[in-house]
Structures are given as C-alpha cells and as structure tokens.
Amino acid sequence: MKYLKIPFLLIWRIWFYTLMIVTILVLSPFMLLFSFKEEQYHLFWKVARILSKVLVYGMGFRLKEQNDQITEIDKSYMFCPNHASLMDAFVLIALSKNPIVFVGKHELIKIPVFGFFYKKVVIVVDRSCSESRKRVYELAKKRLHNGTSMAIFPEGLVPTENIVLAPFKNGAFSLAIEFEIPIVPQVYYDCKRLFSWDFFKGSPGIFRIHQHAFIETKGLTLQDMEKLKQQVFNIIEDDLLSDKKYMNDTNRPNNEREFKSPL
Fold it and tell me: Is 45 part of a structural domain of the chain?
C-alpha cells in the first residue's frame, strides 16, 4: 500500500509547485506595485496572505486555531513557531492580519522572481558573517513601525524528523528584548506529519495551531535572554510532547534523515 501511494504523492507535490508558480505569476503585478515603498508594505502583505491561503487551501489543508491570546492591530510582536515544514511560513502568513517581516537565509535571493519578492518579506541574514547579523538589528528597527511584526523560527533549521524540538538560537530573543516587543509562542502540530520535506510522506488534512499567551519583554535586558529563551522553549516543547499525533510521527522508525529548510 505504501508504494501505491508514491505516484499520487509525487503528483500532489508537483501540484504544489505548479500552484505556487502560477499564483505568483498572477499576483506578481500587485506584489510588484506594492513593493517599492515601505509605506505600502501593509498592502503587499495582503497580497502575500492571498498567495499563502491559495497554497494552504489549494493543497487540501484546513487551519484550526487555538488562541490563548489575540494579537492587536497596529502593535508589533515577535512570532516564534516551531519549524518542521515548508508550509510553516505560509501558515503563519495566512493567519496573521498583522504585517510580518521574517528573518531568513540570504541564499534564496538568487532564485529568479521568487528572490525579488523574498527580499520584501524577509530581513536577509548570512549567519556566517558577523556584519550581516549586526545589519539585522538596523533593518529590524527600520521595519518595526505601524504595527509591523517580526517572525523568526528560533530553531534556525528544520531538524531531523525524530527530533521533537531543536535547541533555540538567540536571535529572536535578543531582538525581542532590544525592541521590547512581546514574544508569541506558536505550536504547529501537523505540518511535519502532513507536509514533510520528505516527498514520499504527507496528505491533505487539518493544520492545528496553538497560539500561547504572549510573553512580555519590557524591562528585560540581554542578561535575561537565556532565561527567556528557555521559557519559550519549554512552552513549545511541553505542548508538542503532549500531542499524541505529533509524537507518533516523531517516533516513527527510520526517521533520522535530515531535511534542511531555506528559512
């Protein structure tokens, strides 16, 4: 039965990239129009949300949210979800009415067309370059206005699928402290199981998202960063460990292959 599914999974994956390319081409005039001025980023974000919703729902997924606290319009946040799938970023974009800028790898700039728009929603960082990391602070300060938020996948990579949650990097927490913005811990239970980086795994289904209560950073200093990082890690890890579907998928046999994320 497993091998009978392979042709259908391949067709389904090809459909994803076809849907992405066609949707980007259709929306590109609007994305281009709203990409020149930062004052129009909120309009660019609305188009990006349309793209994300087309991909999420067009692949046969549905979103089921559990929100312990709701974000406010015109207020900035630091979104920190766990990262296990290419769909993670699209899920976050589809859910958030607040415009968000991501922090991501510089390699994707080289991709034709996609790279141009990638730069509009991502503060690009070369993690091997200290000057690039410093530049993130300068760009973040410029973008965090009028309710624009930031999103960083704090694991910094997609871990092997037998890992519940990889250790967190410092970036999201140092930035949140620096700019005194609340951290929004988010848990994505199903993206790894339903749309893994493994092409021979997955299916349409429901993406469950748990948005935890926000963690305030006002009054904190960089000396509090490790404690803050561990607090967010524990919230997300405990939630994942208590989810039967997530843990059954994580504990599958022969689940050690590494699939790296571009974000």
Answer: no
Nearest alpha-carbon partner for 150 in 128, 126, 180, 127: 180
Give a yes or no: residue 129 inside a domain.
yes
> What is the pTM (predicted TM-score) of this model?
0.89
Please indicate, yes or no, if residue 26 is contained in any of the structural domains. Answer: no
> Which residues, at least 6 apart from 126, have a Cβ–Cβ distance to it below 8 Å?
105, 106, 132
Q: State the residue range of the domain holding 164.
A: 61-251
| Residue that has been written with the tokens 């524990």 in this structure | 234
CATH number for the domain that contains residue 189: 3.40.1130.10
Question: Whose structure tokens read 């991709």?
Answer: 111
Within a domain: residue 13? no
* Separation CA 121–CA 35 (nearest Å): 10
Q: Positive or negative CA dihedral for 11, 12, 14, 20? A: positive
DSSP 51-90: HHHHHHHHTTEEEEEEESS-PPTT---EEEE---STHHHH
- Taking only the tens place, the pLDDT of each residue in 43-90 is 999 999 999 999 999 999 999 999 999 999 889 999 999 999 989 999
Task: Domain count for the chain, please give it.
Answer: 1
